[in-house]
Amino acid sequence: MSKIIAIANQKGGVGKTTTAINLADTLGILEKKVLLIDLDPQANATSGVGLVPLDIKYSSLSFFTNTFKPKYNIVKPDSAHFDFIPSNIRLASIEVNKSKSIDLFKLKRALANIIENYEYILIDCSPSFGLLTLNALTASHSVIIPVQCEFYALEGLNKLLRTIKSIKKTSNPNIDIEGLLITMYDSRTNISNQLREELIKHFESMVFNTVIQRNITLSEAPSYGLSIIKYNPNCIGSENYLNLGLELIKKNTNELTDQKLEKDLTKILTHDTEDVDYIINLNKLKKNNIDEDYSHLIGLRKDEINNVLGFSYNDIHSNVWMYRTTTSFSLIKKNYLYLYFENGKIINYKLSTFRIN
Ligand SMILES: Nc1ncnc2c1ncn2[C@@H]1O[C@H](COP(=O)(O)OP(=O)(O)OP(=O)(O)O)[C@@H](O)[C@H]1O
Ligand SMILES: [Mg+2]
To answer: Which listed ligand is nearest to 22 at the C-alpha?
Structure first.
């Protein structure tokens, strides 16, 4: 599965770039194939991995000028465990977009050519809702929202969630919140503890369990062009980002733990139980596209379905096969494809949604 994740918050200095670099690196260390895109004209991620932004010839600007060429645009920074597409100040020209030639789907279209080469594509966004960030949110399956532990942290959050909802309505119906990530946490301060409590109260499981603590080493590493693990593997920042990588992977691969599966099933089976005899979870499937037409599956046998869709999940408690069409946490609902079997063959399909909790 390839997953594109934007790291966004219109608030400046909340830890987007620090998270982008270090999460990309830990995912790479955890043997995932990762691409990090610097989509911020400030180019902090670019300098943070040891490149000089003004020396960059091929930047993420090429996504918008139709000149993107993987061979030139994608680099492998020294000592990083991920591929990288740098940025520099010239990217700011996109926000002006005088000729109105750039639409919201420009980045999404350009990424379609390389998405299959990666398991995770992370996009470091700028602190604004300009055309660049809107392109990132349109191209992404989900968003990580770093929330800095400070007094005003919650103020911009509602605006951000409203923007994501409007993106959901307009250019990207499947976008999910991957998680709210608490950054610069200091357990000695009241504000840190209060903010964490507030976030968990309002957003519950949307908040990552992993908390990124305030750690001076995290702010030193970029000036050496290194990720935190390379700079100092033993500091608390390394431990935090490694945990974040593990939590993200777990969330995306192990979503159907037995317990969760049973909970979901109870809900499904209470309103849909006829003529069905298996459950299939295909959330590793390539696309999150609820408009996809599944009618070609009708008539196929279970083993043929496995071949077509490439992944299956059989559970002894269940008697439906389903395909969850969204991964991770949806703001509102989840979408499932139900496959109805009779004598081992699919006789019908249906797309349904239900709310979580
Ligand atoms: N957990 C942390 N502990 C200490 N310092 C941190 C931590 N996370 C980030 N910083 C520092 O805080 C500053 C802002 O972080 P960062 O650049 O990652 O934020 P950002 O959201 O990308 O900012 P911008 O909105 O300008 O792009 C940087 O100097 C960074 O080194
Ligand atoms: Mg930044």
So the answer is: 1
CA of 17 relative to ligand 2 center, distance in Å: 4
Please give the model's pTM, rounded to 2 decimal places.
0.75
Asked whether the beta carbons of 309 and 321 are under 8 A apart, the reply is no
Question: Is 62 a pocket residue for ligand 1 (Cβ < 6 Å)?
Answer: no
For the chain, give every domain's residue range: 3-283, 294-355
Give residue 291's pLDDT band: very low, low, confident or very high (50, 70, 90): very low
Confidence of residue 300 (pLDDT cuts 50, 70, 90): confident
Query: Does residue 133 line the site of ligand 1, with CB under 6 A?
Result: no
Instruction: State both tokens at 184.
Output: 């610069």
Tell the CATH superfamily of the 3-283 domain: P-loop containing nucleotide triphosphate hydrolases (3.40.50.300)
Return the ∠ at Cα 353 (arms to 351 and 357), rounded to 5°.
Answer: 155
| Protein residue closest via CA to atom 23 of ligand 1 | 13
Closest C-alpha to ligand 1, atom 3: 214
Q: Tell how many helices (H) and how many strands (E) occur in the chain.
A: 13, 9
